[in-house]
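User: I'm putting together a teaching handout on how sequence relates to shape, and I'd like one worked example. Could you take Putative redox protein from Halopseudomonas salegens, show the sequence you're using, and then write out its predicted structure as tokens right after it?

Assistant: Happy to. First the sequence, then the structure tokens directly below it.
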Amino acid sequence: MKAQIKWIDGAMFLGESGSGHTLVMDGPPDAGGRNMGVRPMETVLIGLGGCASYDVVSILKKSRQDIRDVHTELEAERADSEPKVFTRIHIRFVVSGKNLKEAHVKRAVELSAEKYCSASIMLTRGGVEISHDYQIIEVD
């Protein structure tokens, strides 16, 4: 896997993934930015959410659960002093579907956290406390 980062100006950077996709990262005005893109640490949090969400959806589909939507909310705390690393992250999965079995949803979240989500496992090994919960919404 590869990526490239190009400095645009101020605190703005353009990131390009090895697969050719780009995103704009920028800082707040008080740090020389113009608030035109996500912050670099926000991209880490979004990446974690995407990784975990992908796992949960994939596992639930393999379990033949009738999922209609998965909405994932992340909330992170950072250290007060430099380096301002993540110290705690909470991930909440809101899973909507028809006749979903709670045991399957619980197991999908656990498998993502413990076995499949490389972003989560990497952050945990780095000392970040990551917690999870889920909510199931029954739809017609």
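A couple of points you could highlight for students: The two ends are 41 Å apart (CA to CA). The chain has a mean pLDDT of 97.
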